[in-house]
Amino acid sequence: MRLASFTLLSLTVLGSMAMPLSAQTFDVSLPPGDNFDTAEFRLWHPEGVELLRGIVVLVPGFFFIGGADLEFRNDIIAGIFAINRRAGALWALAVEPGVGHEVAGYIADPKSMAIYPAADSPQTAYPTSWLPTETLARAWLKLVGGEISPRLQATPAPRLR
Question: Domain for residue 159, yes or no?
Answer without folding.
Answer: no
